[in-house]
Design brief:
Layout lengths: L2 E6 L4 E6 L5 E7 L9 H7 L7 E6 L10 E2 L2 H9 L8 H14 L5 E5 L9 H4 L5 H7 L8 H14 L9 E7 L3 E7 L2 E5 L20 H11 L1 H10 L2 H6 L6 H9 L3 H25 L4 E5 H6 L1 H8 L11 H6 L4 E2 L8 E4 L4 H13 L1
Helix pairs in contact: 6-15, 7-8, 10-11, 11-13
């Protein structure tokens, strides 16, 4: 089965045709997609001469009901749009992609695959906020978690690299570090905890998102500035960008400025690394130990400095890097130090392969 994987962002769209051997047979990235299926944007890959049997869509939020991949129907589209307030930049665009492809190729089955679904196995202790029950019941406020497609792939891939596939007690902490960032703790391949919450704002410091902030501080800012200003600031003007003053908060630019002696950039990296270490420690504590630590995502794959900073204080937990291998690694592989008890790996992020796998499982 050849699967067209559609990853619709807030203003862009990434398209990949994954063949039966998981090779990429065609690809197209559109940096400025207007949501239309009538232009040559989506039609271009459909007419690329590669057979397509099905379509898989990355969808950020599945809510409490959609906890696994599902065939796209009109009812599913309505459910996804109802969740738009929780992911306003991505949810409507994903549905636009579904409708555009339905207009262009109505005979193709389409499957929605959710970033929240991998975390549906988390226990109630991990998903429940200590809020009044009436609030939780009426508004559905709970921890959902995100980046589930990336965490699912990386967790399975690192188990294969470590020759631990099928081990029911395998304890893994997965670090998805990109412009958005989150950690996931898994036991036996199942998510038991994560750093993101009801929305993707909670947890780690990210490129432009704040990560966790004292709710009291947020309430004070709302009283002074208003909801819209604070929401925009927390989501798009905070994080590495807000700390360093570097627009967009690109970690590579922050590291370059830090190396040049820029004080705000140095503080930004220190805050980023401190929060990352603190949350790794929390994930390990929740698991009661650690077997494998895996880094994925743009920064996780390509920044030896971030990996070294993340692991540096955890010698007491048996985590140690081979710093030479860490600096030299190109692609994925193991970077565990000689004296370590827990093993450390880097895995290339491949949400497209995870989506293709889920599509095949639904349509099989």
């Amino acid at each position: 089965m050849r699967v067209l994987v559609v990853n619709a962002g807030s203003s862009s769209i990434k398209l990949r045709v994954i063949g039966p051997d998981d090779d990429v047979e065609a690809s197209r990235d559109l940096a400025d997609w207007n949501g239309s299926g009538d232009a040559n944007d989506l039609a271009g890959i459909l007419d690329a001469g590669v057979r397509i049997d099905a379509v898989g869509h990355r969808v950020v939020h599945g809510g409490s009901a959609l906890v696994g991949p599902v065939r796209v129907t009109a009812a599913v589209e309505r459910d996804l749009l109802a969740l738009a307030p929780l992911a306003p930049l991505h949810q409507p665009r994903a549905v636009e992609g579904m409708r555009a492809l339905a207009r262009l190729r109505p005979e193709l089955p389409q499957v929605a695959c959710f970033d929240t679904a991998f975390h549906a196995t988390m226990p109630a202790a991990a998903t429940t906020y200590a809020l009044p029950r009436a609030w939780r019941d009426q508004w559905g406020i709970r921890r959902f978690g995100f980046h589930g497609l990336s965490h699912a792939y990386a967790t399975a891939r690192v188990a294969a690299l470590a020759e631990r596939v099928g081990d029911p007690g395998l304890r893994v902490v997965c670090c998805h570090l990109g412009a958005g960032a989150s950690l996931c703790a898994t036991r036996g391949g199942r998510s038991v905890d994560t750093t993101m919450g009801w929305t993707p704002l909670e947890g780690l410091v990210m490129a432009t998102r704040s990560g966790s902030v004292d709710p009291g501080a947020v309430l004070a800012l709302v009283r002074h500035l208003g909801v819209d200003v604070v929401e925009r600031g927390l989501d798009g003007e905070s994080g590495l960008g807000g700390l360093s003053g570097i627009a967009g908060g690109d970690l590579r630019a922050v590291l370059a400025a830090r190396a040049a002696g820029d004080a705000p950039a140095s503080l930004a990296f220190d805050v980023y690394a401190h929060r990352l270490r603190r949350e790794i420690g929390a994930m390990v504590a929740g698991l009661g130990g650690l077997d494998l630590l895996v880094f994925t995502g743009g920064a996780g794959e390509h920044s030896p400095e971030v990996r070294a900073a993340a692991c540096e204080p955890f010698g007491f937990l048996g985590i140690a890097l081979d710093l030479v291998r860490n600096d030299a690694l190109d692609g994925e592989g193991e970077i565990t130090g000689a004296a370590a008890r827990a093993r450390v790996f880097v895995v290339t992020a491949r949400e497209d392969l995870e989506i293709a796998r889920q599509v095949r499982s639904v349509l099989a």
